[in-house]
Amino acid sequence: MMTTILLMACITFFTRYLFLHRALPFKVGPKMQQFLSFSAPAVLTAIWVPIVFINDGGINLNWQNPYLSAAIVAIIVAYKTHNIYLTTLAGMGLFLILN
């Protein structure tokens, strides 16, 4: 188990190191940079969509779904304030109140 964790840490470090270290001759072109700019939103969407919309093995679009209500409030707060701390506090606060 510990060997797997250490190997994964090494793999993660070295794949990041190739992109971040300036002395290496590896450069990412503008098209690849544009392509990679979509990776973070895609990964985050893949994480939060099942959490918010799927409950008990099915899609739950009910207004009593605390995940959905908190997500909607978080989206509104993020749009209005552009403040990550206030957005997190509002979303988590409403979720804790509803749950």
Automatic annotation (TrEMBL):
Domain of life, per the record? Answer: Bacteria
Any single Pfam family the record assigns to this protein: AzlD
Give the record's keywords alphabetically: Membrane, Transmembrane, Transmembrane helix
Membrane-spanning segments: 35-55, 67-98
Q: Has the keyword Transmembrane been applied to this entry?
A: yes
Q: What is this protein called?
A: Branched-chain amino acid ABC transporter
Q: What is the lineage of its organism?
A: Bacteria, Pseudomonadati, Pseudomonadota, Gammaproteobacteria, Alteromonadales
